[in-house]
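Hi support team,

I submitted a single chain yesterday and got back a structure, but I'm not sure I'm reading the token output correctly. Could someone confirm the output below corresponds to the sequence I sent? I've pasted both exactly as they appear in my results page.

Thanks,
R.
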Amino acid sequence: METKFSRTELLYGAAAVKRFAECRVAVFGVGGVGGYVVEALARCGIGALDLIDNDRVTISNINRQIIATKKTIGRYKVDVAAERVKDIVPNCKVTGYKIFYLPETEGEIDFTEFDYVVDAIDTVTGKLTIIENAKKAGVPVISAMGAGNKKNPAAFEVADIYETSICPLAKVMRRECRKRGIESLKVVYSKEEPFKSQTGDGERVPGSVAFVPPVAGMIIAGEIINDLASFVTG
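Hi R., thanks for writing in. Yes, this is the structure output for that exact sequence:
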């Protein structure tokens, strides 16, 4: 009998699809990158999703964020994303946290409950807090580097943080991870040189476009699904 995940099962097998349904994934940041991670994981049948983001949808999100429409402007992103997931996979357990994740709020999230963690936020302090807590809990984590001021979606790569180059955010993260003794970190980053904003404020607000952040998000989701499937297939 055909189901929502019949085509997924043809690729990964019934045991892997069952495994996906038993997994719980936390996505920190439900914007241009994270929103597409959530979308893809839901459509792959991940059984539980924890969404952490304190932002509301704004009009400037419409050009690139899957949850941003005229009707969702002003609403919390985690609420909009949760509704979308439930519309796709009603039995997925979705938990939303309307918090800005930093050391001051880290106690609100228990990383030991997750099977995988996604860092799709912008602030270095928050990213490092996510990564350190995931490492302490022994939970796999994947981190998104800079997707702003980029035009080439084909320039993204998956690598360890210490193998990255060009990306300004990755440079900062390499330095900070080394200071903290973080020996490895899977990241998705772009080798494309960032463009300067046409209005001259690129350092403050990066430009972005519809076809770049979604690609980073889909790559991240693919890494998660393939990693989780490997626990079944070996």
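A quick pointer for reading it: Residues 66 and 138 are 31 Å apart (CA to CA). Let us know if anything else looks off.

Best,
Support desk
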